[in-house]
Amino acid sequence: MTPLDSQPLVQVKNLTKHFPVLRGLVLQRQVGLVRAVDGISFDIQRGETLGLVGESGCGKTTAGRTLLGLYPPTSGEVLIDGQDMRHTRGPELMALRRKAQIIFQDPYASLNPRWTVNSIIAEPLRVHRLLPTEKERVERVKELLRLVGLSPTHLNRFPHEFSGGQRQRIGVARALASNPLFIVCDEPISALDVSIQAQVVNLLEELQDQFELTYLFIAHDLSMVRHICDRVAVMYLGLIVELAERNELYENPLHPYTAALLSAVPIPDPKQERARQRILLKGEIPSPLNPPSGCRFHPRCPLAKAHCAETTPAWREISPGHWVACHEVA
Amino acid sequence: MTNLLLEVRDLKTRFHTPEGTVYAVNGISFNLPQGSALAVVGESGCGKSVTMMSILRLIPIPPGQIVSGEALYVGQDLLKLSENEMEANIRGKAIAMIFQDPMTSLNPVLTIGRQLTEPLRIHLGLDHNQAQRRAIQLLEMVGISGGANRLESYPHQFSGGMRQRVMIAMALAANPSLLIADEPTTALDVTIQAQIIELVERLRREIGLTIIWITHDLGVVAGMAERVIVMYAGYIVEEADVDALYEMPCHPYTQALLAALPRADRRRDRRLKSIPGAPPNLLVEPKGCPFAPRCEHVRERCRLENPTLTTVSSSAALRGLSGDHRVACWVDLATGAMR
Ligand SMILES: Nc1ncnc2c1ncn2[C@@H]1O[C@H](COP(=O)(O)OP(=O)(O)OP(=O)(O)O)[C@@H](O)[C@H]1O
Ligand SMILES: Nc1ncnc2c1ncn2[C@@H]1O[C@H](COP(=O)(O)OP(=O)(O)OP(=O)(O)O)[C@@H](O)[C@H]1O
Ligand SMILES: [Mg+2]
Ligand SMILES: [Mg+2]
Q1: Cα(A143)–Cα(A118) distance, rounded to whole angstroms?
Q2: What share of chain B is helix, strand, coil (3-state, %, to 5)?
Q3: Do A201 and B267 touch (CB under 8 A)?
Q4: Could you tell me the domains of chain A?
């Protein structure tokens, strides 16, 4: 048996999440299926940050939420610290939920405007019955506020009295309240100004060092992902098409979709920008209601051959730790 | 000397709200040569949109008030024109503007064709067939082929990138000389953003369109602009040609912004350098340099007196790069001396 801490903290095996599309008011019938997440597998090591990138609608948020049990999976398995939420009950389930938290994208919409900062941050403490008395909870909330760089005197303020960056810090404090091991960060900085983004990212890194946190970092911003993540997974239409250590992925992208995505990332250097060759993809992302046959990327792929439309490419390890699903990669 | 299409002098715009006066734009001046591409960058609330809306007189008055300034469009002050003249000749005609969210700017219940042809018929007096032909031509110009069929589509049948192209097509309908694009790609994925940047670049080359592009993304700026204005708290704090700005940013805010950016083409070497503090409160009348509370080079004088935008003799200028490099800072960051 492997000792518990050498086992990855998060293990995802063939995870799928489909949403039925229903029609009709009284007698609803299913007219289609959104294959938002359609069979993804990966591990996240303890203390590691895994990046999840891909264009709007490719299934990143759905993947993150299904991992945390916020959506029941359609099939497949998610193990957090060796346990599957679906086979856990009662106090064990509570303990498992406590270990896995989420930071939401929008610091404006994700905090209840009628709650004080104290009640927002203390909520997980109450739900998980972590501290029995109000006094202990208030002390813990003050400690959390200090931890995320806010003043403990802000306890009784409301979210609207804070700036975007400060609100995101409140969201971070809430996620930390229950001493989690694993945090899904769903676009935690997208809504923030550049000068504030760096503050929040540095805070997430400091907290990770301090508490050995494990992150799934979902983001659009591929520059920030290279900075903050240890490994990066690229999603396209519900599937992971490539996964590798960050520098390997950015310097040696193998999947044509990854290459196109990276070639489109703006670089803050005018000379570089003028010299760059962009891979402009044709067409639009197809609907996840009716994904293309074979390789889902084939209708837009500059390398596509006839067999790409027929057979689904296998998920292969090309070099140690570098995984890709593409027929054309040697 | 190149022809100036637009010359803005000392523009000041305020909003009188129940919370107090918002000092949104505090004396902005810039020149826009014909055929050039200018980027205006700065964080949320620094006055980018209000500057452009003031020039087009789209500010709600009240609560807004254009306190002072001139906006000379080919010599004619837009701030003095009558509302009728603005509608008849300027807005959507000589100067077209596109806004950030293409979904809110297109009417979801009307076909793309109807939305494209109606202004052509009403404002340019084209008949049905002419308008139809021109609409197809405009769609082709922005890279949407399939002509007549496409006109029957509704906005929801187009992707975000296509809707943004339609917005650009509509903006081009009356052959404007100047296109003001307010964060046109912020809501779009990078692959689509790259397509829109290519498109605008092509329009500039092919039809000589002059561009003002508002954004907070210094990566996008590097890819599309010739000249850059950096705004902070309603002021221009730095203005330079794109190469000079990235090679030798002279304002502490510009330097800090560039240092706070991770890069997709480089290995990580350290934590990001963050800018401490929060964006400024525009409800207090500016006194001193607006960036002073967050500036790591701050001096006594910075808190008392706001530096004006002055030309610095940078080595970039010596190397023959075209435009002036202007900065509003008391401290010469290269030497540490006061200006
Ligand atoms: N609750 C739901 N019911 C039905 N369909 C859904 C639901 N949530 C998401 N989807 C669909 O699943 C697909 C994946 O959505 P998801 O939000 O996971 O994408 P994403 O990668 O997070 O995109 P973004 O970058 O825009 O946040 C989309 O087609 C979306 O419309
Ligand atoms: N109608 C209004 N009433 C009151 N204040 C306003 C109004 N419109 C704008 N403002 C204020 O003027 C300031 C400048 O706003 P502006 O929209 O120009 O910012 P911006 O630089 O375009 O920001 P963003 O990047 O978020 O679009 C802000 O403080 C804003 O709150
Ligand atoms: Mg999402
Ligand atoms: Mg704006």
Answers
A1: 11
A2: 35, 25, 40
A3: no
A4: 8-324 (3.40.50.300)
B 202-221 residues inside an 8 A Cβ radius of A = 216-221
Tens-digit pLDDT profile for residues A274-327: 998 888 887 778 888 889 999 999 999 999 999 999 999 999 999 999 999 999
DSSP helix, strand, coil percent of chain A (3-state; round to 5): 35, 25, 40
Task: Find all residues with CB under 8 Å of B1, minimum gap 6, and list them.
Answer: none
Lookup: tokens for A247 = 């520098």
> Which residues in chain B touch residue A196, judged by CB atoms under 8 angstroms apart?
275, 278-279
Amino acid at position B55, single letter: I
Chain B residues closer than 8 Å to A280 by CB: 191, 194-195, 198
Which tokens sit at A41?
């597998």
Task: Specify the pairing of strand B37-41 against strand A100-103.
Answer: unpaired
Percent of chain B with pLDDT over 70: 95
DSSP per-residue letters across B15-83: EEETTEEEEEEEEEEEEEETT-EEEEE--TTSSHHHHHHHHTT-S-TTTEEEEEEEEEETTEEGGGS-H
pLDDT of amino acid B179: 94
Is pLDDT of A1 > 80? no
**pLDDT per residue over B46-103, tens digit each?**
999 999 999 999 999 899 999 999 999 998 999 999 999 998 899 988 999 887 665 5
Residue with the smallest CA separation from ligand 2 atom 5 is B15
Q: Is the CB of B49 under 6 A from ligand 2?
A: yes
Nearest to B220 among A227, A266, A271 (CB): A266
Selected residues 152-191 of chain B with any CB under 8 Å from a CB in chain A = 159-162, 189-191
Ligand 2 geometric centre to CA of A175 (Å) = 32
Mutation to probe ligand 2, out of B12, B15, B186, B282 (largest number of atoms < 8 A from CB): B15
Q: Take residue A138 and report the two structure tokens written for it.
A: 């208030």
A26 near A205, Cβ under 8 Å? no
Cα–Cα dist B331/B195, whole Å:
40
So what's the ipTM on this one? 0.83
Contact criterion met (CB < 8 Å) for A198 and B260: yes
- Cβ(B280) to ligand 2 under 6 A? no
Put simply, the answer to whether A194 touches B261 (Cβ < 8 Å) is yes
Angle between helical axes of A164-176 and A117-127 (0-180°, round to 10): 20
pLDDT at site B101: 61
Nearest by CB: B222 against A164, A273, A281: A273
Q: Is the pLDDT of residue A18 over 90?
A: yes
pLDDT digits (tens, 9 = 90+) for B146-182: 777 888 888 888 777 778 888 888 888 888 999 999 8
pLDDT given at position B321 = 46
Distances (CA, A) of B33 to A273, B36, B207, B226, B229: 23, 6, 15, 11, 14
- Strand partners for B41: B215, B230
Going from the C-alpha of B295 to that of each of A199, B20, B255, B335, the distances in angstroms are: 15, 26, 11, 17
Specify whether the CB–CB gap between B214 and B49 falls below 8 A. yes
Q: Which of A30, A60, A105, A241 to mutate to test the pocket of ligand 1 (most atoms within 8 A of CB)?
A: A60
Residues A217 and A219: their CA atoms lie apart, in Å, by: 6
* Number of neighbouring beta carbons within 10 Å of residue B198: 15
Residues 6+ apart with CB under 8 A from B119: B92, B170, B173, B174
pTM, whole model, 2 decimals?
A: 0.88
Q: How far is the CA of B328 from the centre of ligand 2 (A)?
A: 22
